[in-house]
Description:
With about 350 residues, the chain is α+β, with helices and mostly antiparallel strands. The chain has helices at about 10-20, 60-75, 95-105, 145-155, 255-270, 315-330, and strands at about 5, 25-30, 45, 50, 55, 80-90, 130-140, 160, 170, 175, 180, 185, 205-215, 225, 230-235, 240, 245, 275-285, 295, 305. Strands 3, 6, 7, 13, 14, 15, 16, 17 and 18 form a nine-stranded mixed beta sheet that branches. Strands 8-2-1-12-20-19 form a six-stranded mixed beta sheet. The chain has six helices and 20 strands. Helix 2 (about 60-75) crosses helix 6. It is globular. It starts with a strand and ends in an 18-residue tail after the last helix. The longest helix has 19 residues, at about 60-75. It has three domains: about 5-40 and about 145-205 and about 290-345, FAD/NAD(P)-binding domain (3-Layer(bba) Sandwich), CATH 3.50.50; about 45-140, no CATH class; about 205-285, D-Amino Acid Oxidase, Chain A, domain 2 (2-Layer Sandwich). Flavin-adenine dinucleotide binds near residues 30, 43, 209 and 313. Flavin-adenine dinucleotide binds near residues 9, 37, 188, 189 and 243.
Amino acid sequence: MKRHLIIGGGIAGCSLAWRLIQNGEQVRLIDDKKNKSSSIAAGMINPIVFRRVTKSWRVDEFLPEAVRFYQDLERSTQCKFFKEIKIRRFFASEQEKKYWDEKQKTTEYQNYLSPSENLKRPYSNSDKKWGSGIVKNAYRVDAAYFMKEIQTLLLSRKSLRYEFFDQNQLNPYELTYKNERYDSVVFCCGSDQDRIPYFNRVEIQHTKGQLLTINSCDMTEKETWNHKGFLLPTGPNLFKVGATIERGARDTRITKEGMENLIHILEGMFSGSYQVSKQVAGIRPTVFDRRPVLGQHPVHNGLYIFNGLGTKGYLMAPLLSQEMMHFILSDKPLNREVQLMRFNKKDV
Ligand SMILES: Cc1cc2nc3c(=O)[nH]c(=O)nc-3n(C[C@H](O)[C@H](O)[C@H](O)COP(=O)(O)OP(=O)(O)OC[C@H]3O[C@@H](n4cnc5c(N)ncnc54)[C@H](O)[C@@H]3O)c2cc1C
């Protein structure tokens, strides 16, 4: 059995910690409770990228593992935070509808796209011109609930501590932290990675996002709507509206401008009445090529990074945490597209 220190308890760090524990490893996860992203996310798992109607990167691999992972965790925690949803996409152009209709007929897309429709939905503002279609095999994780439960599980295994990572206490040569020896130290710090003195050539960009919670009796709770943003049912008469994309901002303050953008997204889709009950903001850790970053430090071989989950942490973390674990424990090569080498710098 080996000992692993993980810094950062978002979806990346928690999923890796849980994988390692289940594999019989000893884990210490430390988190400073300043979570920027995982606990406020909408938690949607959408297999399709709209406009050109393409499958999300590696979705045929990510999706089955995500379903297995969340369902296993529901059994371990005896909680319900994962469910299948229907995403109705209102097409943004004639071209998009054309792509949809073409791809929907192919075997490759039949698990994900249902035939397009021209029916007008009650209170819909966005299906007048080109109609809509349902994305199948989409899911939602109740992110706040999930994060609370997985952290409770890790606390019950005495694997999680709430504290700030003090870099002066890490000896990267001897792999000791606060005088305790580890076999690996994995940084899963999300958008705070640039405060860590290792892997600092890896550019984790900050993409702020804001979300609203609204109450409405007019909207059906059976479908999620998507058109320039989303309207996601989360409970009786309760919906999330999202999300803004604000590049470069590192603060998590909610803003008036964010509110205006979100109302614009909402009213572009929905003509019913509603009341806003909450606004939140977070920072997505993104990378220039929209691929995650996994790997080993070229000088200090016991140090690792697992980051860059961007807008799709809930889809990708289950399988990537498994691949990361195999890389740490048995050197199994990582997918080429996530490797550190693409930053093309020796000293990362
Ligand atoms: C508005 C919004 C909506 C989103 N919606 C979705 C969605 O619908 N579906 C989806 O899949 N994704 C969504 N995302 C993206 C998703 O949230 C991210 O992909 C994911 O949360 C990134 O997880 P992470 O663990 O890498 O980072 P984080 O969640 O930021 O976690 C990093 C953790 O490290 C800790 N930490 C950092 N530095 C230190 C330190 N020095 N010492 C101790 N602890 C430290 C932080 O406190 C934090 O808890 C959304 C994001 C936003 C902002």
